[in-house]
Design a protein that fits this description.
By secondary structure, the protein is mainly α. Helices cover 57% and strands 5% of the residues. The protein is built from 7 helices and 2 strands; from the N terminus they run H-H-H-H-H-H-E-E-H. It has helices at 16-20, 27-44, 61-83, 95-98, 109-129, 132-135, 148-170, and strands spanning 138-141, 144-147. A two-stranded antiparallel ribbon has the order 1-2. Helix 3 (61-83) runs antiparallel to helix 7.
Length: 172
């Protein structure tokens, strides 16, 4: 499944930035590549940088990382529900209410790496399990149409977006 096969009608325009950040990638390859990219970035990251926020009122680096992990979990769950043909409309989530309760300030680099790796490997296993019919299935999430394949590309693009921000604003 490559991105050029994904019609924009299968996701809310809000996610267009994430999807377009990818180029014409193959989904599983991009999930794997993204895993290696983020783990490599974290491996080189000094532990003390986790508490750094680039401006007043912005998330710390650890909070941004936990947000990325949380979002992947939520989107993975949405993909599972839609792939299994659950017709229940899936709710949105308020990312800003998650952060204060994330315990990010008390997390170590190693714990973040382990959690991220587990979540991403779970995502890859889940998307590898979908057949052609399931990956194209469409449901409702956050009040909009959403396909399973769109969720996979959004997971990848969302992480790419945050890696870019980390490199530009946290590590300069």
């Amino acid at each position: 499944m490559v991105l050029s096969e994904l019609p924009s009608s299968e996701y809310n325009p809000f996610y267009q930035t994430y999807v377009m950040a990818l180029g014409n990638v193959e989904l599983i390859e991009e999930l794997e590549r993204g895993k290696e990219e983020l783990l490599s970035l974290l491996k080189e990251l000094p532990e003390e940088k986790l508490k750094y926020a680039y401006a007043e009122g912005k998330w710390s680096l650890a909070e941004a990382l936990v947000h990325t992990i949380d979002t992947e979990r939520i989107f993975q769950y949405r993909a599972l529900c839609i792939a299994r043909n659950d017709k229940t409309p899936l709710p949105g989530f308020d990312q800003d209410t998650y952060v204060p309760y994330s315990n990010a300030a008390n997390r170590s680099k190693i714990s973040l790496m382990e959690e991220y790796k587990a979540v991403r490997e779970s995502t890859i296993c889940l998307f590898n399990s979908f057949d052609d019919e399931a990956i194209k299935r469409v449901g409702t999430a956050s009040g909009s149409k959403m396909s399973v394949r769109a969720l996979g590309f959004i997971i990848s693009g969302h992480q790419k977006h945050h890696v870019r921000i980390i490199n530009e604003r946290y590590l300069t």
